[in-house]
Design brief:
Bound molecules: dinuclear copper ion
Structural class: alpha+beta
Distance between the termini: 75 Å
Number of strands: 10
Largest sheet: 5 strands, mixed
Strand content: 25-35%
Shape: elongated
Number of helices: 1
Length: 166
């Protein structure tokens, strides 16, 4: 079989771009941890508060786990419970969230923390908060008339640099 010179170039170019994109995807997924929500745990979204850990939303220090803090969060139209989150710098944190009604987002602006909260599912994300500051939490899934007003904040506090006015 005879292949034209340009035909060969295109085959090489096509194969090379395929390999390049697979590498980018692989590095993103396996090295940078970018992947869709993998939680297979489900719950009845109309009775969220009856399920652990959503019976006790908030920031909790935990012992004997691979992370130091758990942030348990319930989203509903159009707010987050708890409304404000504070964490110490360099804490390893597991965010566990769900929604009581429609699909909401949980994105911490300027970080890798970005989850879709689906009715009936646990959304979980573990990370280390390694930059002090105050971050905006936004809902990035259109959820209704109050969508644009659905936001909250997260404060990462450096204990060594705090002052009394904190
Ligand atoms: Cu909640 Cu948009």
């Amino acid at each position: 079989m005879h292949l034209h010179k340009y035909e060969k170039w295109w085959l090489v170019f096509g194969s090379a771009t395929l390999v390049a994109f697979l590498i980018i995807l692989g590095v993103g997924a396996f090295h940078n941890g970018t992947h869709p929500n993998q939680s297979k745990k489900t719950l009845d979204y109309e009775r969220v508060e009856e399920f652990e850990p959503f019976d006790n939303p908030g920031v909790h220090k935990v012992e004997g786990k691979k992370w130091d803090y758990e942030v348990v969060l319930i989203a509903s139209a159009f707010n987050y419970n708890p409304g404000a989150i504070e964490l110490p710098l360099n804490a390893k944190v597991k965010f566990i969230a769900t929604t009581k009604d429609v699909i909401h987002g949980f994105q911490v602006a300027g970080t890798n923390i970005n989850m879709m909260l689906e009715p009936g599912y646990y959304s979980e994300y573990t990370t280390v908060v390694n930059k002090a500051g105050e971050y905006l939490i936004v809902c990035n899934e259109f959820c209704g008339t109050g969508h644009a007003f659905m936001y909250s904040s997260i404060k990462v506090v450096d204990a060594n640099a705090t002052d009394s006015s904190n």
